[in-house]
Amino acid sequence: MTDLEDRLRQALSTEAERAQPEMLRPLRAPRAPAARGWLAARARPGRRWPGWMAPLAAAAAVIAVVAGTAAISSAIHGRRAAAAAGLAHRVTAYVAASDSSTVIPIRTATNTALAPVNAGGNPDFLAITPDGKTLYVANYLYHGGTVTPIRTATNTALAPIKTGRSPAAIAIAPDGKTAYVVNFDSGTVTPIRTATNTALAPIKVGPHPDAIAITPDGGTVYVASDVSAGTVTPIRTATNTALPPVKTGHSPGAIAITPSGRTAYVTNSGSGTVTPIRTATNTALPPIETGSDPNAIAITPDGRTAYVTNPGSGTVTPIRTATNTALRPIRTGNPNDIAITPNGKTAYVTNFINGTVTPIRTATNAALPSIKTGRNAVTIVISP
Questions:
Q1: I need a surface site. Which of 19, 75, 120, 228 has the fewest CB within 10 A?
Q2: Is residue 140 in some structural domain?
Q3: H helix runs in the chain, sequence order
Q4: How far is Cα 349 from Cα 162, in angstroms, rounded to an integer?
Q5: What is the CATH number of the domain that holds 222?
């Protein structure tokens, strides 16, 4: 682990300890949408944890990485492909501290924290435009819902953008022209025109949306509506219109889209399944049985295997995408989040209670010895 990784992990643990119990929302693994050009990890609203985990969940730091003006292509949790652009420019890591309402830039060349940026109430999610020039911060509890743009060249906050209530996730289109904001308590998605930072008309989706992903071609946005709805709503980006919802299992959460864009995979924590959706027709295929409480999902860069964390079972389930069949589960500990290296050879799984990260060799689906990190290991990202 690098010194930067140690610092980010320490920041995550510190924020979890400082959070007030009455303000805690259960953590959900970051669902980075399959949109290109940004890197993000976050604590999710509305996550249904197993009973033994709820007391330990904390509203923790959220990490995103910007490479100056160089684009970073990624799909963590699925969301999540290999990075493209070189990193010749200044590289800054951003940590959202929810209880202090700030975003803290960290200069990676020296591993030093810069002056915090005021970002609105309860910053909960970070997303960065493909050119790296603007960081968007979702303010989950701020006066009904805003998103704060931050100019990364100067680390200055711009005027907040009014969205719906409780903005919970952001996905940015691959061309960088539009940011889509999920509003958990309004049941809407707010498109934001990034050139002018203006909000467009909200798009009605199902109740309590909390996850979002964009196809690699930028043509369709998929939004999961958690708990009661059990649906995923496709949005046609050319017109910003919602299409008929696709029925999934109970409590859909994470969404990951294959690099080809042909299939979206949705974890259903309440059903113990993953629902594949054929994107050409927006039809759900038969659900795939996984372990208990499937949470995060990541797809290998070649698109052949999806890996699903099952906190309730202490396992990770590989899914062969060619046949949509689940393979033998891999025991890790208390898996929460997962990220796969750009070469696709290793998946890394955070184990929340154990305070460890378990590497998985994807060629054999064998778990390697766990790496001790620190308690409350929540989210993970992998540099290009």
A1: 228
A2: yes
A3: 3-18
A4: 35
A5: 2.130.10.10
In a domain, 306, yes or no: yes
Sequence-distant (≥ 6) Cβ neighbours of residue 154 within 8 angstroms: none
Q: Which residues contact 132 (CB under 8 A, 6 or more apart)?
A: 66, 67, 68, 69, 70, 71, 72, 89, 152
How far is it, in rounded angstroms, from Cα 279 to Cα 265?
Answer: 10
- Domain span at residue 60? 3-372
Q: How many CB atoms lie within 10 A of CB 52?
A: 11
Q: Name the 3-class secondary structure at 5.
A: helix
13-49 tens-digit pLDDT = 444 334 333 222 333 434 333 322 223 333 343 343 3
Tally of structural domains, the chain: 1
Domain contains 19 = yes
Instruction: Record the pTM.
Output: 0.79
By CB neighbour count within 10 A (0-12 exposed, 13-18 middle, 19+ buried), where does 172 fall? Answer: buried
Read off the tokens for 324: 């949509």
Q: What amino acid occupies position 19?
A: A
Tokens of 298: 């990541």
Q: Does 66 fall in a domain?
A: yes
